[in-house]
Amino acid sequence: xxxxxxxxEDGSYTFFSDEFQEHYHSFxxxxxxxxxxxxxxxxxxxxxxxxxxxxxxxxxxGLGHNTAAALTKIWQVNPACRVEVIxxxxxxxxxxxxxxxxxxxxxxxxxxxxLGELSHRFEVQTEKLAAQLLIGDARQTIQLAIxxxxxxxxxxxxxxxxxxxxxxxxxxxxxxxxxCLDKQSYLATYSCAAAIRQAMTLANxxxxxxxxxxxxxxxxxxxxxxxxxxxxxxxxxxHLKTRAAIPYRDPDLKGDRQTILERRILEQQQTTLxxxxxxxxxxxxx
Length: 286
Ligand SMILES: C[S@@+](CC[C@H](N)C(=O)[O-])C[C@H]1O[C@@H](n2cnc3c(N)ncnc32)[C@H](O)[C@@H]1O
What we know:
Layout: E1 6-7, E2 13-14, E3 16-17, E4 22-23, H1 30-39, H2 44-50, E5 53-59, H3 65-77, E6 82-89, H4 94-100, H5 109-121, E7 123-125, E8 129-135, H6 138-147, E9 152-157, H7 171-179, E10 181-189, H8 194-202, E11 206-210, E12 219-223, H9 234-239, H10 257-270, H11 276-285
Parallel strand pairs: 5-6, 5-9, 6-8, 9-10
Antiparallel strand pairs: 1-2, 3-4, 7-8, 10-12, 11-12
Helix pairs in contact: 1-3, 2-3, 4-5, 6-7, 7-8
Bound molecules: S-adenosylmethionine.
């Protein structure tokens, strides 16, 4: 598989996945997405100011933009902060290819060098950074993070979109993710899909919206308490009562895309919930 760097509107680079038929980032910009969808909602700068150690869980590490953005910001704000990172990624070729093509150049050169090492050795240990890149299906590798009792201050949840990669948006997977989230911490994702928000509720998380980046719709910030969460609009609340909110399920955490999609369609056909098109029509009239 050839990975050609593609430039985005803010000058940072992404890739296109032939397998998932999706870009790794929105065209608004890989850099902007890392900062606006993940760092700012997770209050990385504020957390770095007040903590001597920060723990990050980067789910779907890809090129490494989200971790690179976080490390750059943390050490700008608090150069002595120790950071522990667990990054989950299935494809071992993405990060080294990004590094080889100098695609982490939007971030500090110190960070780019450290993450270059991470992409090749899968582990980095320095005085300020303890990072592991766990290669494999995140549904399995997250169990290694749980076994280490890893309690993240911030979780970046960045899979391909739910219809393309439902495996990483299921109730069962989000329940595992929630086990890695510390009591006062933040989980950010770019998706505002009702099915994902409903899965978060079933994983005992509260959530609020985050601003959209470029033309993209809002994202979601989740945590165990409602503090610092934007209240949902009435329209969003009602969206959660429609068929779109039927979540993806993967009881044995081994299902393939097709099986998970079909299971959800079946559940949607059997529900008495309002159709999402009716909900849309009601809100168009208002
Ligand atoms: C949208 S991209 C992530 C972009 C990344 N956060 C970045 O900043 O470059 C999604 C990533 O999920 C990875 N992926 C797909 N299925 C996966 C799975 N089951 N487990 C772990 N990673 C997976 C893909 O290889 C891809 O790198």
